[in-house]
């Protein structure tokens, strides 16, 4: 974990670099969330006024080896810029840090106002107007993300349906822990794998918690670290995955909306009209299987001694929720 | 039980201490992890209470389904192998019921507040 005074020191020079000689950073605070990244909020004050920013930074400023899934902060900033240029609802990246900033691997973006906490978006009165329109807005936002011209993107990994099935099945097998529902689901999905669509930019983690929502609805897609090139159906389905409905199981889109609205918004904004409910279904079932495997992976961090926290230990017990959802979906009960 | 506390009682007493005494005095990350710890102890208490019967029922269903018996872990592995090979599928009589019952028993212990479980 970083010392706040180190960050504050780095921001003194950075504020001048961003906003001119009279600029000074204020109101620095660490935001919660982001296990794989540090997220800091601060303001830059100049004689002309005050403006809010977010610093997204690798833990301690050190970019660990970029994993098979995570693309690294520089690439992430490049993806956000390309998506935004294509009209997608994404943050404005103000500055990508280099060595002279002394902050390590990091970038700065303009701070947006809105809410990311799922339970508040699903229940608070302040979002009552947003909830009925949010599914169509998410569909439209994804259509714009998927329309990002490939030649404007940094180099990204390709990962379609088959590649992901292969990867997560290999991970599951490496644990050598028998969970028959996972075996059934891997085989079932493999036998019904969707025909590949033309590959597009895929956000990779588009769901409540990673989108900012205001009183009128969607503000922006955040958390682009799992972006890749692949099947656009993945993004339309991940937000429908039962674990991301936060208890509101009868609202298939994120616990707030209907699938017809999500797909309608997607098509109206130019998204691929071949993506139908059956395709979303396949990817939603796969999403539960993937999340279940990810829970086991996070538990391995405890078992290996890398992270001895009770939280990492306990997440191993969350895989069972995906087993229940898989059986309910595979038998048509969810 | 007179004379000595059960494992379940010990775990519940510890969870009660966390919830009523320790957590109100903690802040930030420590309070978060203490709440996770209290939740973990609740899982352990339910597993002590419900786990043995759930395992027995699973083993009994597996013996029926696979036509043999043996240690639970070996039975599970046998089922995994048959599912992976496609020798058993959702159409196999009794299979879906067995897997659903097994999942329900696990979630009852591990996450009784989970939406899909409460909706059953």
Structural key phrases:
heterodimer; A: 334 residues; alpha+beta; Phosphorylase Kinase, domain 1; Aminoglycoside 3'-phosphotransferase, Chain: A, domain 2; 2 domains; 5-stranded antiparallel sheet; two-stranded antiparallel sheet; 11 helices; 9 strands; globular; B: 120 residues; mainly alpha
Describe the structure.
The complex is a heterodimer of chains A (334) and B (120). Chain A folds into 2 domains: 4-110, Phosphorylase Kinase, domain 1; 118-330, Alpha-Beta Complex (Aminoglycoside 3'-phosphotransferase, Chain: A, domain 2). The longest helix of chain A has 27 residues, at 277-303. Chain A is an alpha+beta fold. Chain A has a 5-stranded antiparallel sheet with strand order 1-2-3-5-4. A two-stranded antiparallel ribbon of chain A has the order 6-9. Helices cover 42% and strands 15% of the residues of chain A. In chain A, helix 4 packs across helix 8 (259-268), helix 5 (161-175) runs parallel beside helix 9 (277-303) and helix 9 (277-303) runs antiparallel to helix 11. Chain B has 120 residues and is mainly α. Chain B has 5 helices and no strands. The relative contact order of chain B is 0.09. The interface between A and B is medium-sized, with 35 and 35 residues.
